[in-house]
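Problem: given the chain below (219 residues), write out its structure.
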Amino acid sequence: MTVPPPLSLTDHNLGLALHTATGQLGLALQRGKNPVAQQTWSLDRELLNQLHNCLGDFLPSQQWPELDYLAVAQGPGSFTSVRIGMVTARTLAQQLQIPLFAISTLACFAQSLIKTCDDGELLAVTMPATRGYLYGAVYQVIGEKLVTLSDDRLWLPDDWQQFMADKQVERVYGTPPQLGITAPQLLTLAWQHWLLGDRPHWSAAQPFYGMSPTDPVTN
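Solution.
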């Protein structure tokens, strides 16, 4: 059994975040809790063709061995964009033999809102899905951290509204169309798991597609 390293708030490990879920590529680099660099590219249909060039420009090849962990947005989002990001991140983590954290796109956006929320506040986040559905998740803000109360799932609008009423959620935030800008928050969430001693193997990272355009609708 592998014993995790002792936890330390002075952690100086280097992490890289890869966010492709909405077609906007977002990359972020962080050492410990301190941001090092971040950049976004609105690539959309050019995501697959340009991703590796952007990675190379953002982090020179000689620095890749310095990485201690990777983080990737696992969805929801564009089916193709999520898949591209997940395949790339899994391949990199496998080659570098480092942990890979797969983090919810909705959680990344919720993390970006923490400073606007009160301690203990319930925070609901939604994203449009196909055929009138939506993705939704609910979090509670505890200090500067998110506690997940309801994981990402598909909702019919009426069911979501009833769920919000039952939970007495006062504020619901819809995601913007492009979320690569939340790559730093993706890295923050991964780093919090890293501090707890989590070291997920790359093979455990799975996408959350929710619903693809060809999925049958079930009630």
